[in-house]
Design a protein that fits this description.
The chain is mainly alpha-helical and 489 residues long. Among the domains are: 118 residues, 2-Layer Sandwich (Potassium Channel Kv1.1, Chain A); 138 residues, Four Helix Bundle (Hemerythrin (Met), subunit A), CATH 1.20.120; 80 residues, Helix Hairpins (Orthogonal Bundle), CATH 1.10.287.70. The protein contains 21 helices and eight strands. The strands form three sheets. Strands 2-1-4-3 form a four-stranded mixed beta sheet. Strands 5-6 form a two-stranded antiparallel sheet. Helix 9 crosses helix 10, helix 9 packs across helix 11 and helix 10 runs antiparallel to helix 11. The longest helix is centred in the C-terminal third of the chain and has 39 residues. This is Voltage-gated potassium channel regulatory subunit KCNF1. Belongs to the potassium channel family. F (TC 1.A.1.2) subfamily. Kv5.1/KCNF1 sub-subfamily. Heterotetramer with KCNB1 or KCNB2.
């Protein structure tokens, strides 16, 4: 217990002007001397309150720090000293820069402890903070999806539970062995349907109808019908069991699924009913056009391939680089086609009839294709072709590196997030195991109370027992469940 003499000394010191006060702060074993006139530049911060708390007694002091030595007049804080060195710079430079190697989420917590506004964080550091937040949110979503699959709500009726089982069976191949087998069958049906579509165009495998028109072999039609039946059943089951019907219908991959099966049914309707409403030739042309749409089913492979999904994401985030590529090629095509047309006009057998026609030559030359259907014959024209070829190679090569970086970055990020989500589940299982070993006598009272509620999953009571520097709300606020997500992974 501190004596009254120490308190009287503090009162006499507090009577001095706050601008002349000198305080000693010990953060994680690192001592630092700070001055009141500097700290009062930001009066809402904890250090500024520390300068003016001496007259408030020990209650005011210990509400701001972890310990206090009245003899040395030293305030103790059990906080990160590296983060404090960065945060204290705000009093001298008016902004905070995050030191490399510090976890952004932990640094944010340190700023909140010292009551330094996040708006004072420099923009370059805010980007790291937002990126880390997105990663933690993604981990939380993945963990929550897995926990939703494991948890059973006793308040749900039988149809709701059946919907969840169907959804998990159709959407999550890793959930069970039958689901994995079904995913393999779906993948094989996609390949079989694509092969049938290609083989059906071989003239030797086609037959002629009564009017002499060539058509696909009936066996291929039957295989096509079986594949479409499987795709239809798969789509209907996923639609019925979907927890969010609107989001499901508007999803890009589900739109691809509809485009893959829609031409079959439209062609079927036109075949049986279209002949009575329009001429037979128009019906056949419409059916032929709809059959081309069957190529959309090849995109269904992206549902079963993480590599294709990663490639799609990389291209989606590389629009700027792709735009630069198209701009480079457009400028080069216009310049070299105009030069090629001008230089080839002196040759009597020139193949460059106009500048728009020369666009085709410039495209196949800059993209290093070179079909040979149009080529220069004069010396200057050949020199122009050589330069356009080199410029095309450079223009195509420039944006490739950023696109590859986006692909690798996203792929590695997905692997890290997947590993982090599995790690969180392992921690939950470990906490659950410790709860069982401890027995009912050592279990917290609130946890025992929650175990009596059948609507709360068994693992929920153990999640609040884990501790970390960073807590992320994982489930809904109504249930008040929180899980441990380590931000420094």
């Amino acid at each position: 217990m501190l004596d009254n003499s120490g308190l009287q000394d503090q009162d006499s010191d507090a009577s001095e002007s706050s601008e002349a006060v000198e305080i000693i702060v010990n953060v994680g074993g690192i001592r630092q001397i700070l001055y009141g006139d500097i700290l009062n530049r930001y009066p809402e911060t904890r250090l500024s309150e520390l300068v003016n708390c001496l007259s408030g007694g020990y209650d005011a002091i210990f509400s701001l720090c972890d310990d206090y030595d009245p003899g040395k007049k030293e305030f103790y804080f059990d906080r990160d000293p590296d983060a404090f060195k960065c945060i204290v710079d705000v009093y001298y430079f008016g902004e905070v820069h995050m030191k490399k190697g510090i976890c952004p989420i932990c640094f944010k917590n340190e700023m909140e402890f010292w009551k330094v506004d996040l708006s004072l964080l420099d923009d370059c550091c805010k980007s790291h903070l937002s990126e880390k937040k997105e990663e933690l949110e993604e981990i939380a979503k993945r963990v929550q999806v897995i926990l939703d699959d494991l948890g059973l709500d006793a308040t749900e009726n039988r149809w709701k539970r059946c919907q969840k089982c169907i959804w998990k069976f159709m959407e999550k191949p890793e959930s069970s062995f039958p689901a994995r087998v079904t995913a393999v069958f779906s993948f094989l049906f996609i390949l079989l349907s694509s092969v049938v579509m290609c083989v059906g165009t071989i003239p030797e495998l086609q037959i002629e109808d009564s009017e002499g028109n060539r058509m696909e072999h009936p066996t291929l039609d039957r295989i096509e019908t079986v594949c479409i039946g499987w795709f239809t059943l798969e789509y209907v089951l996923r639609l019925i069991s979907s927890p969010n019907k609107l989001h499901f219908v508007l999803s890009f991959m589900n739109i691809i699924d509809v485009l893959a099966i829609l031409p079959f049914y439209v062609s079927l309707i036109l075949t049986h009913l279209g002949a009575t409403m329009m001429e037979l030739i128009n019906v056949q042309q419409a059916i032929q056009a709809l059959r081309i749409m069957r190529i959309a089913r090849i995109f269904k492979l992206a549902r079963h391939s993480s590599g294709l999904q990663t490639l799609t994401y990389a291209l989606k985030n590389s629009f700027k680089e792709l735009g630069l590529l198209l701009m480079y090629l457009a400028v080069g095509i216009f310049v070299f086609s105009a030069l090629g047309y001008t230089m080839e006009q002196s040759h009597p057998d020139t193949l460059f009839k106009s500048i728009p026609q020369s666009f085709w030559w410039a495209i196949i030359t800059m993209t290093t294709v070179g079909y040979g259907d149009i080529y220069p014959k004069t010396t200057l024209g050949k020199l122009n072709a050589a330069i356009s070829f080199l410029c095309g190679v450079i223009a195509i090569a420039l944006p490739i590196h950023p696109i590859i970086n986006n692909f690798v970055k996203y792929y590695n990020k997905q692997r890290v997030l997947e590993t982090a989500a599995k790690h969180e589940l392992e921690l939950m299982e470990l906490n659950l195991g410790e709860g069982k070993v401890g027995g009912a006598g050592h279990e917290p009272e609130d946890a025992r109370h929650k175990r009596k509620d059948p609507g709360v999953p068994v693992w929920s009571s153990n999640l609040k027992l884990s501790h970390s520097d960073t807590f992320i709300p994982l489930l809904s606020e109504e249930k008040h469940h929180r899980t441990r997500l380590q931000s420094c992974k």
